[in-house]
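Course assignment 3, question 2. Fill in each field.
Student: A.L.
Task: Predict the tertiary structure for the chain below.
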Amino acid sequence: MSIFFAKAPTPLSFIQANQLKLAKQIAQTRMGNIVIEVVNSQQQPIGGVEVKIEQVTHEFEFGTALSTQMFAPGNDPTDRSRYLQLAKQLFNATVHENALKWDAMEPQRGQLSYADADRILSWSKANSLPLRGHTIFWEVEQWNPTWLKSLSPQDLRSAVERRATEICGRYRGRIREYDVLNEMLHGDFFRQRLGADIVKTMFQRCHAADPSAVLYVNDYDILNGKRLDDYVRQIRSLLAQGVPVGGIGIQAHILKETVAPAQIQHSLDTLAQFNLPIKITEFSTQTATEQEQAQNLLNVYQIAFAHPQVKGILMWGFWEKAHWVPQAAIFDSSFRPKLAAKVYQELIFRQWWTQKSGNTNRNGQFSTRAFFGRYRVTVKGRNWSRTRLFSFSSQMNQSRVLKFIK
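Answer field:
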């Protein structure tokens, strides 16, 4: 039974006017037509054939940050198993929470370890989950290694150039995108010491080491509008300088504050002017009640999924015992799903999920509207059956014809 018809707590409603508008926009943006055509060896249509269309995953990224501690040796095996099972069950993309940060990788100068970052990458790859790299550099001084702060400008520049080249070179073709310099609106550690041009150098070094990687800016106080205009000016300036910015990251930590749906919509619409992919790179929400937490999740996910320029949402953790703000997790310490977790699953795996069945018509066709993603299709006649996996992409001009030959 859908949680939206549960008795208590009071379910969240889909019938408000704005949500109906969003539902229409979602259908226009995230769905297309799948046509299954069944013919015999003479290419003649076969009617009355049973067709089953099952979505395997979304094209849109519904991802999560992965906690370093859950991959560390000595971690409780039961917790680890349940955590990883949920991660691959609920999400289709991942991001390093802390393992790729400079302070985590090289806390002492020269003592560099890729072990944690590699473990997370290996697990993600084994489970077909594309991994974002977060973050190569961080502009807020307190989050940088202590030893880095005492370097001369010349040595600091050399360290920066070396790290950009090494990270993107090591993971070339394996990590598809990076946050290059995190939170430029809230710090100036590198620019203060090395000048404003260091930003371009960072991006160019990363691009040279892996030309296929999409390089993102990433910051907060954007969705709530507080630094939105500043972000627009910053992105416009970087692009004008020829900095290879390929994507716009929006942190969405809604912690004990209220962000109106209209403001979320306005922020996304404003950033869409650059015609770059937008991602909600870090979502979490802490509220007084489970109902409010679920409502915040509902607002952000619906508005973002409906927006054609948004390509993904990554939750910044999901389990209370491996979350930077434990109260913001959608699963408690015992892995009990909160209302927000139920709403999340309702959206991604019911409201926005395609599973259809029927029979081919006299022209040998069965068609349906479907969300873009990966599918398993089975056609079944009286004495035979065929099953195929295929991708239904938004790049296919809203339609995909798949032919089966008996």
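Instructor remarks: The radius of gyration is 23 Å. The chain has eleven helices and 16 strands.
Grade: pending
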